[in-house]
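Sharing a chain and its predicted structure for anyone who wants a worked example. Both blocks are below, sequence first, tokens second.
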Amino acid sequence: MVLAIALNAIIYSVQEILFPLPSEVVFPRLSPLGYFAVVLVLQVVFVYALQASGRWLGGRGKFDELLAVVVWLQLLQVALQLAMTLLFLVAPSLAGILNLAATLFGLFIFSRFINEVHQLQSNWRAFGALLMASIIIALALSFLLGLVGPSFLGLSANV
């Protein structure tokens, strides 16, 4: 997992150099090490959330099995991200469309793998477990960003 996230952080840094955000966009710019740390924590929490949501739906998946699936998909994501970065330099519109198609196909693959790990007997239940884990992560991030977000973005906390 650490290797996949480190490669992801390197590609993130290259993308920041090649395609910088406009200065008027208020979006936190993370250093490669900061990006690495955030993604690592999020991925570990996501695997635990995926285990809990799958078990809630009657699954039997173990943490190490789900971790293997997530790491394998992360390595595929790194290869895809590198290809999309190179393609974006040549044909931005085509890169955007292919990126969307790859994301949808990746969700399909991920739900199939979750179904196999949890033995849920239904791809829809596996997709539901994926959605629940994603919602858990989104709510946790919303809470944390609500606590530290204004100061992190350079805004006044007393607004």
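Comments welcome. The chain has one domain: 30-141.
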